[in-house]
Amino acid sequence: ASDKITINVTYSGNKQITCRIFNEKGQSLYENNFSSSKLEVDITSYAKGNYFVQLVCEEGYSLTKKFQKF
Questions:
Q1: Residue 46: helix, strand or coil by DSSP?
Q2: What pTM, to 2 d.p., does this model score?
Q3: What is the CA radius of gyration of the chain?
Q4: Model confidence pLDDT, tens digit, residues 42-52
């Protein structure tokens, strides 16, 4: 089985966004820059638990959301 999360971004312009995923201990598990409106991340190898996805745009604005893998 493959587990993926999909991140959809409504963002004006073609600027880069950095996506990071952290575990509850604050350890970085994933980092990628993208400029499209959609990003899929394969989380198959992640253990069950809570994670945080952080999006940071070029201007420095950031958004962090929690998600849970069952």
A1: coil
A2: 0.88
A3: 12
A4: 999 999 999 99
